[in-house]
């Protein structure tokens, strides 16, 4: 093949993927033209970075279900905080017990059990595609912020703990996890991020990663109190860079990178401030990756190990866009099964769209423009 032909082929693979995303992210499945996977390409390996967001984590359930069903991608490392950590560990446990189908079944069983914990008819209301809390639900959520967990739950009862103990074989995962796991938690007294590995995994580690201090008692591990990992990383991406061989990272986000409307009411402002707080560390980390990758561009100067790894990094993203069902941050508390199934369907749809259009870029190039999204 002539040199110019090789250059044109490479440019054809690399250039279109992120440029097509400039118009606002992955498009709906119905408007996609599938790209051929190609014969002889085989399976490819990616790392997953799973964002947390309460009940919105059911969107990630749908994404993972589509990725597992498609079977073109394998996974090396999975990083998650809060609901992202729950999805990561449940998927790993299911895979350890029954492969890809076991992982899909485990995720479905977990979220189905979550969906039975809330009296949805009292707390949920739906108008078209938009779902929100009822006035009674908003009142209960508001009252919850006025009391400490010691007042609301003096016996430290936790139905989620019981569910996790029933479903997940933590001892087996510590010994034989199918993936490298990175579970983000926040040390309550210092604000420092602590990332637990699969060899350290316990039910307390997983509960710590999802411990909202206005609702739950701090989770003590080795004498240290821990809160939700989203306060310090949502999720942590750097372990996937330093601890994994694969240089492809698929970001599965629950919060849109930009909102259409500026908040004006006190409630809207409070919700947006909370959302920004949970995303700030992730956005800063991705900005650092974007800048570092630019600095590591090819040059006549010899490159070290860090520069070579940065230049090889490829990022991809699946996110909900402006889905009406996820526009209200308050619905992160809405663990009501019909709502969770709605989000699961949306996540599956978005992942199928991404697979159809961008799976071929894995191992070749990033499918998002890092500078546009995070620069």
Characterise the protein shown here.
By secondary structure, the chain is an alpha/beta fold. The chain has 14 helices and ten strands. The chain starts with a helix and ends with a helix.
In brief:
With 375 residues, the chain is an alpha/beta fold. 47% of the residues lie in helices and 15% in strands.
Key features?
375 residues; alpha/beta; eight-stranded mixed beta sheet; two-stranded antiparallel ribbon; 14 helices; 10 strands; globular
- By DSSP, the count of extended strands is 10
What is the count of DSSP helices, taking H or I runs of 4+ residues?
A: 14
Give helix and strand order, one letter per element, not per position: HEHEHHEEHHHHEEHEEHEHHEHH
Q: What amount of the residues lies in strands?
A: 5-15%
Q: Which oligomerization state do the chains in this entry correspond to?
A: single chain
Task: Write down the overall geometry.
Answer: globular
Structural class: alpha/beta
Mean pLDDT value: 81
């Amino acid at each position: 093949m002539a040199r110019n032909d090789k250059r044109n082929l490479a440019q054809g693979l690399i250039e279109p993927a992120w440029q097509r995303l400039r118009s606002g992210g992955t498009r709906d499945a119905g408007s996609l033209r599938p790209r051929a996977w190609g014969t002889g390409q085989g399976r490819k390996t990616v790392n997953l970075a799973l964002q947390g967001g309460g009940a919105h984590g059911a969107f990630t359930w749908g994404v993972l279900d589509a990725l597992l069903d498609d079977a073109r991608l394998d996974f090396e490392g999975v990083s998650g905080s809060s609901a992202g950590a729950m999805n990561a560990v449940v998927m790993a446990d299911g895979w350890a017990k029954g492969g890809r189908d076991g992982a899909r079944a485990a995720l479905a069983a977990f979220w189905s059990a979550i969906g039975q914990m809330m009296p949805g008819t009292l707390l949920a209301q739906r108008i078209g595609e938009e779902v929100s809390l009822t006035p009674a639900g908003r009142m209960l959520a508001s009252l919850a912020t006025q009391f400490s967990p010691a007042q609301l739950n003096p016996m430290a009862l936790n139905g989620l703990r019981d569910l996790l103990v029933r479903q997940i074989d933590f001892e087996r995962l510590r010994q034989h996890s199918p993936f490298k796991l990175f579970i983000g938690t926040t040390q309550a007294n210092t604000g420092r991020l602590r990332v637990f590995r699969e060899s350290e995994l316990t039910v307390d580690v997983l509960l710590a990663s999802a411990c909202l201090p206005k609702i739950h008692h701090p989770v003590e591990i080795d004498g240290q109190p821990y809160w939700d990992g989203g306060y310090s990383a949502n999720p942590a991406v750097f372990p996937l860079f330093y601890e994994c061989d694969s240089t492809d990272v698929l970001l599965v986000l629950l919060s849109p990178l930009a909102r259409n409307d500026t908040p004006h009411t006190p409630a809207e402002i409070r919700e947006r401030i909370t959302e920004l707080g949970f995303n700030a560390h992730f956005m800063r980390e991705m900005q650092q990756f974007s800048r570092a990758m630019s600095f590591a561009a090819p040059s006549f100067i010899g490159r070290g190990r860090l520069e070579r790894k940065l230049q090889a990094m490829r990022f991809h993203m699946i996110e909900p866009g402006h889905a009406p069902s996820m526009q209200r941050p308050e619905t992160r508390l809405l663990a009501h099964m019909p709502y969770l199934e709605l989000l699961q369907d949306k996540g599956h749809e978005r992942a199928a769209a991404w697979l159809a259009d961008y799976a071929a870029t894995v191992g070749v190039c990033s499918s998002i423009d890092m500078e546009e999204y995070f620069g």
